[in-house]
Amino acid sequence: MKLRISNGRVIDPASNIDGQHDVLVEDGKIIAVTERHDDFVADHTIDATDHIVCPGLIDLCARLRQPGQEHTATITSETHAAIAGGITSLVIPPDSDPIIDSPAVIELIEDEAKKANRAMILTIGALTQNLKGELLTEMAALKAAGCVGVSNGLSEIKNSVIQRRAMEYTATLDLTLFINAADPWLQNQGCVHEGTVSARLGLAGIPETAETIAVAKSLLLIEQTGVRAHFQNISTGRAVTMIADAQSRGLNVTADVSAHHLHLCEHDIGNFDSLSHVIPPLRTIRDREQLQQGLRDGVITAISSNHQPLAKDAKLGPFAETSPGISGLETLLPLSLKLVNDEELNLNQAIASLTNQPANILGIEAGQLKIGSQADICIINPNADNECQPNDFVSAGKNSPFAGWFFNNEVSHTIYGGKLVFSRN
Amino acid sequence: MSSGQLTDNGQLRHFLTIEGLKRPLLTEIMDRAEQFSSISHQQVKKVPLLRGKTIVNLFFENSTRTRTTFELAAKRLSADVINLNISTSATSKGESLLDTLHNLEAMHSDMFVVRHAQSGAAEFIAQHVAPHVSVINAGDGCHAHPTQAMLDMFTIRRHKQHFPNLRVAIVGDILHSRVARSQIQALATLGVGEIRVIAPKTLLPSDCQTLGVHVYHDMEAGLKDVDVIIMLRLQLERMEGALLPSAREYFDCYGLSEEKLALAKPDAIVMHPGPINRGVEIASAVADGPQSVILEQVTHGIAVRMAVMSMTLGSQSEQQEVVA
Q1: Angle in degrees, 0-180, between the axes of helices B146-160 and B65-76, rounded to the nearest 10
Q2: Measured between alpha carbons, how far is B187 from B142 in angstroms, rounded to an integer?
Q3: What is the model's pLDDT at position B318?
Q4: Predicted ipTM?
Q5: Is A203–B19 a contact, with Cβ atoms under 8 angstroms apart?
Q6: A320 touches chain B (CB under 8 A)
Q7: Is B130 in the same domain as B247?
Q8: Residue B156: which CATH number?
Q9: A316 and A382: one domain?
Q10: pLDDT band at residue B323, thresholds of 50, 70 and 90?
Q11: Residue A164 confidence (pLDDT) above 70
Q12: Which residues in chain A touch residue B121, judged by CB atoms under 8 angstroms apart?
């Protein structure tokens, strides 16, 4: 099978390519990014005139609900949603049911992923058994089974000694530690940012310090233990400053931010809108600006969907009783490119934050159009006029606060392993 | 601000929060309550305004006084009243709030008076009821208790007539108080000169000043020259979680004693949404003293709730007539 993607604007940040080219694919691999003059005879040609051709997107945080909550969503349903959003690699956190704390669970997920065969699914293993923060998992076995890192999910380890040892052991195995920074005591039962909105609505707040204290503590332990660490879904401006400082001191730390934290703030909760109920919570306008700045400055190098599909019922109730989370796979690219439109980010930076930069965080060979690499490609129509309608999402989760937003871009084709897995119309 | 509590022509469809309501509407509630309050003194304490209407008191949280005054208010308007106390355990048995609601709607109720432990519950219910049903918020979590706020405004107006020149101090657990949030919004809407809150930092929401209040941490400064003192009930479980060390120290610092009361204007009135903790937030001598209007507040609660109920169901009938 020979595929030609002709005449698109090819953007491959990993190799500094940005220009009019053809991309040639053979046997699942990229064989050339070239000018038109060649003797390649394609079985199939995709005309990408006026379109952007870039590597398939890599999402650092997506919960697919399988195993454990197949009634909500499945690997099948969510990989369909992923490719509709141009995403060809997904990283799933360990807090499924069962928890990803043994090679058997990883195998089970990989089996499902292979059956679906339309996107790469990567797993993060549990740092402690049952994520309870008490006993270490068999991380060497998890690593051998293929997990790209370890994490304690959303539940920070409370005991500082165990936190330190877990980091030391992770460092020993040369694994990346993924951290969702939240002090469990300060976060407590909170459901919104502690500030003007929590004051007005009488909702339990999560103070900025819930994140910053956890980031500060982690950074000090990272420095002591030498572990390579990645902060997921940071939400505060001060965390950006602290991580920037750590990076300038030479610490091996990276960070990502969810697409919704780059666009929404606490005020979007309006009058108890449960669709804007997320953890970490939407923060202040200033935090949002500082997150965008962190992305521009290269402190934050990836944008994630933090995809959490939910059944309709999960969002029906008084705010604090609803489940947090946004179905984000299909808005990851539109929201990221909206930043380009809003002149907050340049196009190459936006694409890099979704492709080679997250690949670097994971230490994987993806997110690039290098000759000989697996042909995972996303083709984008940058002149669309598209109203976001969550009820039409491919994902089983329709929970999105972006209904009615207009996006001027949409994915037109997604290619995974050289195979056309998604094509609009 | 609640999106759906007003009809297209600005009448009350639900009564969920003070936020977003305009001064003329609050004044109308008080004016109407003034008319109803005379009924209590008549031999026959009933008017037929809501005859044939069914009102369901839907209490997911315990309450005696608020429920009773709502019930009395409904009965004085000649409505039929059903009281339902739904402990939170019943809903946690699997029936969702919406299921409960739709079951009740099937009984053809015209109004739900809702109290719930979660902020935003009344708003949520209002978004999901059938179009002919009105919802009155009788207290949702730490968010709002608008009828309490209006009966407090009514009481203040009875004693002080005009709002703009007043200095009002609200003392105590602002953080957890739906009453305080609604009072602050009502006082601000009615143009009160200065709203003060007095509490230790542990009992104040962060960014409290964004509510439009002056923040004080000490009673001596905070009570100076105020016209109205509103004391809030201190839940005794606040000693847990390190919000306060003891009830005794709380009374020493933030309890209203006769000495502290003397710092306010000589004609200052003392209010409390009840039930009071004597010797915790207020001294008995003050609670029972000449400046206390606490029992009046309870009485006014009936008239104010009659006003709100008749206005919301009135707007419903008007709407239906328009449709018909």
Answers
A1: 80
A2: 18
A3: 56
A4: 0.91
A5: no
A6: yes
A7: no
A8: 3.40.50.1370
A9: no
A10: very low
A11: yes
A12: 318
